[in-house]
Amino acid sequence: MSNAWGKAKPLRLLFFAAVVLPCLVLAVLAYRSIEREDVILERRLQETFEAELIHAVSLIQDELGRVREELAASAPAETGTDPRTALAAWKGSSPLVGVPFVLSADFRILWPTRDSFLAQSDLDFVNWNREFVTDRTPTPVYENVALAFKDQIADPKFAAAPEPAPAAGRTRIASEKKTDEAKPSPPAAAVGGSANNIPLTGNREKGAGLERSAGKSKVADVQVAQQALAEFEQSDEVRKRVYDEAARQGKKTESRTVSPGATSSKDAAILRPESVYISDLLRFSQITAGNEAGLVPRFIAEKLTLLFWKREASGRIVGCLVEDGTVRGRLLARLPAVYSPVRILTVLDENGRPLVIPESEGGRDWRRPLAAREVSELLPRWEAAAYPTDPGALAVRAKTTRLLMAGILLGLCLLIAAAGFVILNTLRSEMVLARQKTTFVTNVSHELKTPLTSIRMFSEMLKEGRQPDVAKQRSYLGLMLAETERLTRLINNVLDFSKMEKGKRAYAKSRLEIGPRIGEIVAKEKVRMEHDGFEVAFADFSEGAFVLADEEALGQAVLNLLSNAEKYSPGQKRLEVEVSRAGGNVRIAVRDRGIGIPPSAAGKIFKEFYRVDQSLSAPVSGSGLGLTIARRIVRDQGGDIEFQPREDGGSVFTICLPEARDAS
Ligand code: ADP
Asked: What average pLDDT does range 438-442 have in this prediction?
């Protein structure tokens, strides 16, 4: 067998190249994709969250729009010389109004006056906002960067354009370059407020809004804005260019308060990404120029406040510090439910704290949501954020899927390997068989030739009368007869084998008294064998035992065993045949003291064409069919043949047949 494998080296190579290698490559590829399962799962979840956040943000922006509209509608049209009553009425009418104030057209504080400091809140308001509302210091005003540069984004050359050389005046603030052509108009959010990502120009139509949309219809303007937002979101390249351009124009960009991203991905943004809102430092006069009303976000001691202002007919400005608690409450009321089975959705304020901290969620890292979206230019640093309810569950699900897939993968690989192995083994056996058949043809030709040569030699001698001795003549005739029988046996074996292969051999079974039958066969062979120097012993301990078998076929099986014992006993020529009964069976044992059979070959000797010495130059010729046929015959009679080595050398082949019950 190992010999056969050795010769089948190309087969092994084939097995490796066609089965093992592709299997390994497939396994590695599949495993790598399985390994990313948690990332894929998280990514899918993230996409779902993002869709929900877009909706949540639009609700918040919508609500901010309403807040602005409500404040504008409720604010007194004219506060008059003593604004106290009008402001008190305003404050009384709307819970949104925190600290009301009135400014003169030239930005002097008319209210709260020094002597009107009734409450600490009034004092605080003046302390924190005096410099700004009196137009002495600017405040950062935020704008969506994509909208600020929407016209550039709409330009097809923008994304592909080579990076602009950094300008020298990066640090100049926008308010100082009013005449600069590249400077966009004041951010829409601050001046008019916006309910959506796309600023509503409602309050700007009479003023600055006109200059911006000169020559363009409002619809076209909105379309450009929408396209800019979409492109900004989708393309890294566009984003990069827009931020570069913003920096070049001296706009301030900030980092977001959160680092959204998958926790499983190793490269999850540790650094906070850049905010989509850029800021410009603008004075109050710049913000109010050409506008009717608006909201201005102001960071005061790291706390975000909203200032509302509205121009009176007289040119004065009435406004208020918007009541923080009321705004928060209204925004929360508009948000979808905080909890769903899969996620927690909340809004984080400027300090990264959720507006409401759900109980039992205290330990969560709020700054690492799976998905987050900035809320509005009116609420810079605020984020709508979503977190998986149970981050561990995702990992467990990914692990289960991974294990399942790995199991299937392993199973498939094993199956392919096993199938490949079986196919290859079959191929190998076929090759061995093909080689054995070639040997068989050569052996059979040789076996046919040997007896034919001696028959021819003796018949020629007899014909030419070269041997006058009658006794010798008789012995020649006897030898010729024996050779003819050998030929017949060989030819019968070959023919029987092909018949058996096709399953066509028919048996004529009859009750045989086994002892005497075997005795006859042995007696017939004994003469010739003794002539060849054999010592043949026969013993029958089976008196009265019968078997149901085909007499001729059984005789052929016994003769094949005798012939083997004779062929493979070159030295000690001693042969014993013994018939006995045991446990309802009849046993016919043929023992010799020949060359024996090595243990490694013992399992194969009954296989067709198998010969212990497979070489063509084997000292004993044979077809490799004798034992195959003998076993087939015996099995067809309901029995079996077994081989056993003898202790002091030689072999024992035992035919075992079930004893036939009494015919009566
Ligand atoms: P063959 O025509 O080669 O004898 P068989 O099927 O009869 O074919 O036997 C198969 C092989 O088993 C033989 O080639 C031989 O090597 C071995 N064998 C069978 N009988 C004996 C025996 N009595 N002693 C030693 N070897 C044997």
From this structure: 78
- pLDDT band at residue 437 under the 50/70/90 scheme: confident
Q: Are 359 and 323 in contact (CB under 8 A)?
A: no
Distance CA 410, CA 365 (A): 38
Distance 550 CA to ligand 1 centre (A): 24
Distance CA 225, CA 149 (A): 9
- Of 550, 564, 559, 485, the closest CA to residue 514 belongs to 550
Token match 């007869």: residue?
481
pLDDT tens digits, 471-517: 888 888 988 888 898 888 888 888 888 788 777 788 999 999 999 99
| % of the chain at pLDDT higher than 90 | 38
The pTM for the full model equals 0.56
- Exposure class string for 238-260: b at 16+ Cβ within 10 A, else e: bbebbbebbebbbbbebebbbbb
659 strand-pairing partners: 547
Query: 13: buried, middle or exposed (CB in 10 Å: 19+, 13-18, 0-12)?
Result: exposed
Measured from the CA of 595, which atom of ligand 1 is nearest?
25
CA distances to 17, 22, 46, 338, 630 from 409, rounded to whole Å, are: 19, 13, 28, 40, 48
**Beta carbon of 194 within 6 Å of any ligand 1 atom:** no
Q: Which of 182, 128, 162 is nearest to 299 (CA)?
A: 128
Query: Does residue 611's CB lie within 6 angstroms of at least one atom of ligand 1?
Result: yes
- Nearest-atom number in ligand 1 for the CA of 612 is 16
- Report d(CA 209, CA 216) in Å as an integer: 11
Residue with tokens 């076993």: 631
* The pair of three-digit structure tokens given for residue 513, joined into one six-digit string: 């008294």
Rounded CA gap, 252 and 281, in Å? 9
Q: Is 629 in the pocket of ligand 1 (CB under 6 A)?
A: no
- Give, in order, the Cα–Cα distances in Å from 304 to each of 325, 352, 379, 400: 12, 12, 8, 45
For ligand 1, whether the C-beta of 650 sits within 6 Å is no
8 A C-beta contact, residue 129 and residue 123 = no
Q: Classify the phi-psi angles of 298: left when phi > 0, otherwise alpha if psi is within -120 to 50, otherwise beta.
A: beta
Strand order in the sheet with 252-255: 139-144, 274-282, 252-255
Residue 194 pLDDT grade (very low, low, confident, very high; cuts 50, 70, 90): very low
- Beta strands at 640-645 and 651-658: parallel, antiparallel or unpaired: antiparallel
Structure-derived torsion over alpha carbons of residues 632, 635, 639, 644, reported in degrees to the nearest 10: 40
- Two tokens, residue 397: 């699900």
Q: 144 phi and psi, to 5 degrees? A: -65, 120
Structure tokens at 594: 């020949």
Q: Are 577 and 589 in contact (CB under 8 A)?
A: yes
Beta strand 109-111 with 574-582 is: unpaired
Per-residue pLDDT tens for 607-653? 988 889 877 667 887 888 899 999 999 999 999 999 999 999 999 99
How far, in Å, from the CA of 138 to the mean position of ligand 1?
111
Q: 80: how many CB neighbours lie within 10 A of its CB?
A: 13
Ligand 1 pocket check for 624: Cβ under 6 Å:
yes
Amino acid (one-letter) located at 278? I
- Residue 176 region by backbone torsions, left for phi larger than 0, else alpha for psi between -120 and 50, else beta: alpha
